[in-house]
User: Which sequence fits this backbone?
C-alpha cells in the first residue's frame, strides 16, 4: 500500500514538472536552473543601459554666429588642407568671424589644448587613455585611405611590400622584372605638386621623403584622377584615394603587405580627429557643429 502511495506521489510530481517546463521552459529545481531543449538562455539580471550617444550628437549646425567669434586650431600637417577648407567655408558662411589655423605636430597640438592656448587640436592619431582622463575628447572627422593602382591589363598579379612601393616612387625600382613580372619599364604617373592626394601620399607613404626624378616618373599638370587612372596602360602605376579607385573598371588595386584597402590592417589608412576639452566653449560648439554638418562634410569630401 505504501509503495502505491509513493508511486502516485512521484508520478504526480513528474507530471507537474513536465507541465511547468512546457509552460515556462525554465524551472528552478533543488537550486539548479534547468532549461528545455532549444530554449534561449536569458539572465534574471537587467541588461546594462545602452551607451550614450557620441559627442558629435551634442553639436548642431549654427543658425547664427556672433560677430567676432574666433576659433583657434592647431593642426597636424596631415590635416592642414582639411582645416584650411573648413576655415574658408566657415568664414564665408559667417562673416565677421575668424578661424586661426597653425601647424604643429599632434603631440604639440594636444599640449597646447591642455594648456588652454587653443580651442581645437586637429590630430592624425588616437587619444591615449591618459589624455582622455584629463577631459579631452576626440571626434573622428575623416579617414584617408590611399590605394596603389595599376592598369587592368597589366600582367603583374602580385602584391607589393611597403618598402617596394617607396622604392618604385623614388625611382629605385624601375623594371617590372624586379617584382616578378615579365620585363618592362615601370611608368610612374604622379599627381601635380598642388594635389591634396599627393600630399597625403607624401605624408602617409613616403614619410616626408621626396619622389624620384628619374625619366620614367611623370608628373601630370592637372589634378584629374580619372584621367590618370585611364592612362596607366600595361606598365603604369599610380595612386588615388580608395573611393576614387574602388569603382574604376580600368584599374586594379594592388595589395600591400598582403592587405587590400577594405581591411583594417591595410597600412595606408589614417584617421583624422578634432579634439576638444570638456566642457566645450561656445566657439567650439559652433565650429564643430559646422564641421560635422552636411555642409562641412561635403567640404571635407571635396578635398579628399
Assistant:
Amino acid at each position: 500500500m505504501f509503495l502505491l502511495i509513493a508511486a502516485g506521489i512521484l508520478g504526480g510530481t513528474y507530471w507537474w514538472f513536465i507541465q511547468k517546463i512546457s509552460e515556462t521552459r525554465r524551472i528552478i529545481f533543488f537550486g539548479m536552473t534547468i532549461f528545455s531543449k532549444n530554449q534561449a538562455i536569458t539572465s534574471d539580471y537587467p541588461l546594462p543601459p545602452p551607451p550614450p550617444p557620441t559627442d558629435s550628437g551634442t553639436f548642431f549646425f549654427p543658425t547664427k554666429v556672433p560677430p567676432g567669434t574666433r576659433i583657434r586650431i592647431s593642426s597636424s600637417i596631415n590635416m592642414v588642407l582639411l582645416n584650411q577648407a573648413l576655415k574658408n567655408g566657415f568664414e564665408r558662411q559667417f562673416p565677421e568671424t575668424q578661424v586661426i589655423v597653425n601647424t604643429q605636430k599632434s603631440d604639440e597640438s594636444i599640449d597646447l589644448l591642455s594648456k588652454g592656448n587653443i580651442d581645437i587640436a586637429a590630430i592624425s592619431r588616437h587619444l591615449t587613455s591618459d589624455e582622455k582622463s584629463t577631459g579631452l575628447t576626440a571626434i573622428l572627422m575623416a579617414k584617408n585611405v590611399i590605394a596603389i593602382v595599376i592598369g587592368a591589363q597589366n600582367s603583374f598579379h602580385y602584391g607589393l611590400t611597403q618598402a617596394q612601393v617607396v622604392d618604385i616612387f623614388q625611382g629605385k625600382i624601375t623594371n617590372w622584372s624586379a617584382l616578378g613580372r615579365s620585363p618592362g619599364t615601370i611608368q610612374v604617373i604622379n599627381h601635380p605638386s598642388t594635389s591634396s592626394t599627393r600630399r597625403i601620399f607624401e605624408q602617409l607613404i613616403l614619410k616626408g621623403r621626396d619622389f624620384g626624378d628619374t625619366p620614367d616618373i611623370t608628373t601630370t599638370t592637372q589634378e584629374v584622377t580619372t584621367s590618370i587612372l585611364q592612362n596607366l596602360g600595361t606598365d603604369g602605376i599610380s595612386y588615388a584615394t580608395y573611393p576614387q579607385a574602388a569603382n574604376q573598371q580600368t584599374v586594379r588595386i594592388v595589395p600591400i603587405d598582403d592587405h587590400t584597402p577594405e581591411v583594417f590592417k591595410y597600412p595606408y589608412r589614417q584617421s583624422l580627429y578634432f579634439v576638444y576639452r570638456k566642457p566645450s566653449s561656445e566657439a567650439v560648439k559652433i565650429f564643430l557643429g559646422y564641421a560635422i554638418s552636411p555642409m562641412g562634410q561635403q567640404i571635407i569630401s571635396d578635398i579628399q
Q: What stands out?
A: The chain has two domains: 55-135+278-303, 144-253.
